[in-house]
Design a protein that fits this description.
Its main location: membrane. The longest helix has 20 residues. Helix 6 packs across helix 8, helix 8 packs parallel to helix 9 and helix 10 packs across helix 11. The strands form three sheets. Strands 6-9-10-3-11-12 form a six-stranded mixed β-sheet, with helices on both faces. Strands 2-1-4-5 form a four-stranded antiparallel β-sheet, with helices on one face. It is globular, with a radius of gyration of 19 Å. The protein has 295 residues and is of the alpha/beta class. Bound molecules: adenosine-5'-triphosphate.
Length: 295
Amino acid sequence: MMQLFIPLNFLGFVYREIRGALANIERMFSLLDKVPAIQDIPSASNVTPTQGELAFNHICFNYDERSILKDVSFSIPAGQKVAVVGESGAGKSTLIKLLFRFYDVDSGLITIDGHDIKQLTQQALRQSIAIVPQDTVLFNDTIYNNILYGQPTATDEALKEAVHLANLTDFIESLPQKWQTKVGERGLKLSGGEKQRVSIARAILKATPILVFDEATSSLDSQSEQAILSALKVAAKGHTSLVVAHRLSTIVDADKIVVLSEGRIAEQGTHKALLSQNGVYAKLWRIQNEQTITH
Ligand code: ATP
């Protein structure tokens, strides 16, 4: 099962990429061309980082000829929470893909605990990061096995604790066969919010120093949203977290907010500091608040 973890985690990403790219067959081929290109260097270290201090230093990245990220630099001290925001297409998800080394940066350096991620094996790198993606991949298996997939060697006790912290216990108890209920492709379908909480439970079980949360673009009902946010708070406690946010209300408590615009950092600072700066972030904040009031 452990050997399956990385490829399956990876496939989830590739699946979403391909689905998004299907409208453009050329883009799909360029993606398939690029994916296997990442290789571990012969001297790569297999030691998984434990502190979770994360830094993006002068990152530049192009998809084919198109420049996507331009000289992006920011860091997250161990245990802190940084949110990345910006318009659709600004390059937020690309940052996550570079962190996972689904692609390599064209220039610049991404480091974890001071080590260039290219100096780590991909296995060691991915063992140090848990991701709660926009779209959780569920396997055609029981809910129990779907959560255990976060850490296949976990005890029953640890699994139940993770489920409790992820606000999923009542949901699982309400299922027809409880823990043995089949979910996924041919089983019971879970809502977007329930699936994200399955991901959070997996992330809690995996207990990595770094947690990445890719917030879903479409908003959930506010009860579901609150259940996710409180579960995430628990999961992120004592971990470094990188949040790609679409709804600014979910990240006002971040230690730092990085505002991306057309692949560059337009601003960075706390919610309060950015509001008083009255720039790009303050404008996004006003727009979202107006939308909330009119809906
Ligand atoms: P959103 O908020 O809509 O999720 P984002 O800020 O996460 O957007 P990215 O997904 O990082 O944006 O995309 C940045 C740019 O890169 C976009 O213009 C997108 O069309 C382009 N892009 C993304 N994936 C690929 C790919 N595999 N090949 C070519 N271009 C891509």
